[in-house]
Design goal:
alpha+beta; OB fold (Dihydrolipoamide Acetyltransferase, E2P); de novo design (two linked rop proteins); 2 domains; 9 helices; about 45% helix
C-alpha cells in the first residue's frame, strides 16, 4: 500500500455507513478523485469532519492508495486555509457551494486537467479575500473554468448565447479580475447569464448538469 501527501479541494461528500464519508475532491497529484475517511462517528469526530469537509475547503492530507479499490483512504487531514470570510458570509458561502457543485458535476472522475487544481485554489483564495463586490464572482469563475477545460466561450464555439448575455460575456472577457467584479449587473442579468452558461457547458459535455444550488444562488442575488 503506497502512502502519499497531497492537497485536496473538497467538492462533494456523502455518508458511507455509520462511521465513514466518501469525499469527492480535486488533487494536484490524482486529479478528480474519490476518497474514503473512516472512523467518523458521533460527537467531536463528527463535528470536526463536518467542519473539515465543507465545499471548497482546501486540505493538507496524507492518503493511502489501495490496489484493490478505486478509492483513496484518507489517513490524516488538516485545513490549509481558514476560510472565515467565506463561511461567515451567506452569499459567499452560497457561491462556494455552487462552485463546488459545478466542479463536481463538470469534471469527470479520474480526469487530470493540467492547472485546474492550482487555478481553483487561487480562485478560492481570491473569493476569501474579497471584502465587497463579489456578486459577479461565480460568473468570472465559470468563464475561467471553461478556459481551463479547453472550451472557452466565443463566437466559434457552436453555441449561441442570447444577445444580452453575449454582450455581458464580452465585457467579462475584456476585463481583468477587478474590472469583472465591478461590472454593473442586476440579479436578473446574472441569473439569465448563468442559465445560458449552464446550457453552454451541457452543450460541450453532452449531458445535463442538474446543478441544484444555482436556484438558491439566484434567489440570493435577486
Amino acid at each position: 500500500m503506497k502512502r502519499e501527501a497531497t492537497d485536496l479541494i473538497v467538492l462533494h461528500v456523502t455518508k458511507f455507513g455509520d462511521s465513514a464519508l466518501i469525499v469527492h475532491a480535486l488533487s494536484p497529484l490524482y486529479g478528480r478523485c474519490g476518497l474514503i475517511i473512516k472512523g467518523v462517528g458521533a460527537g467531536k469526530k463528527n463535528r470536526r469532519a463536518a467542519a473539515l469537509f465543507q465545499p471548497l475547503n482546501v486540505l493538507e492530507t496524507v492518503v493511502d492508495e489501495n490496489p484493490k479499490s478505486s478509492l483513496l483512504s484518507i489517513r490524516s487531514a488538516e485545513l490549509k486555509y481558514n476560510l472565515t470570510s467565506i463561511r461567515g458570509n451567506i452569499l459567499k458561502n452560497c457561491i462556494s457551494v455552487f462552485l463546488s457543485e459545478l466542479l463536481y458535476r463538470l469534471v469527470s472522475e479520474g480526469s487530470r486537467e493540467e492547472g485546474l487544481f492550482e487555478w481553483t485554489e487561487n480562485m478560492i483564495c481570491a473569493l476569501e479575500g474579497l471584502e465587497c463586490d463579489f456578486s459577479n464572482f461565480h460568473i468570472y469563475f465559470s468563464i475561467g473554468l471553461c478556459g481551463i477545460l479547453g472550451f472557452s466561450p466565443n463566437r466559434d464555439s457552436g453555441y449561441r448565447f442570447s444577445e444580452a448575455n453575449e454582450a455581458l460575456l464580452g465585457k467579462f472577457l475584456s476585463n481583468d479580475f477587478a474590472g469583472c467584479m465591478a461590472l454593473p449587473a442586476t440579479g436578473e442579468m446574472r441569473s439569465s447569464f448563468m442559465e445560458d452558461m449552464v446550457k453552454y457547458l451541457e452543450y460541450h459535455i453532452d449531458k445535463p448538469l442538474e446543478i441544484k444550488s444555482l436556484k438558491i444562488l439566484h434567489e440570493l442575488l435577486c
